[in-house]
Amino acid sequence: MTRSPINEKKLERALRKIKHCLALSQSANENEAATALRQAQALMREHRLTEMDVKLSDVGEVESQFSRNERRPAWDQQLSASVAEVFNCSSLRVRAWCKTKHRVVERASFIGVTPSQHIALYAYEALLTKLKLARKQYTSGVRSGKYRSSYSADTAGDHFALAWVAQVYGKLQALVPQGNDDSGATTDGRDLVAVQSQDKALIEQYLSNITIGKLRKSPDIELDLDAQIAGMLAGREVDLNVGIARAGNDPLSLPAHRHAGEE
User: Fold this and answer.
1) Distance between CA 139 and CA 154 in Å, rounded?
2) Domain of 248?
3) Residue 33 forms part of a structural domain
4) Does residue 225 register a pLDDT over 70?
């Protein structure tokens, strides 16, 4: 069946509804938060299943408001890559001049078929805030002697954060509808697979038109087992029904000049 191209006004309404549901998901009431988040996911899925005839111009980029003066740590990169995969997007490491800091900084950006990249950005920033706090608390515990480690507090914190991300990645996969889910109609499942494949092809075409630096291979390291266990346990406690949202509604624009490597 032939589908009509995306209607801009319809897209704007859909994105506004999704953002509203994501904002409601910050509610302290667990049932209300869970319901709002499910509604946001359902709206996103419905929008993409009814707007399958998309084109390259429907692919967009959004950049995180969070930045690092140096290269983002491995656990931050892993978080953005995990979120991007779950929400059928691509994540890049973007380096650009920051006027306020007067230096080059690095941020995460998300590329996807609208509104996927916006949802991925909201999830990443909310989870990054949670992760930074959890890592800070763990490293403080290592410094005070509350937690044992044969590594420095910062290194143990890095190992903790990687395990945390791995646990939350599994939670995200369970949260977001996938094409092989048995919970929905069979035709919906097949259509979702088709949507995901189409989006991936469009994103790859988009990426082929921009300059991307080569990915540097990370060296193999021996991880602190105690820190990994602590990170896994902390990741299991993360409630994804609360806070998958970001303050503000205006999408951030990506600078024209890039020195980035795909994650």
Assistant:
1) 6
2) 57-262
3) no
4) yes
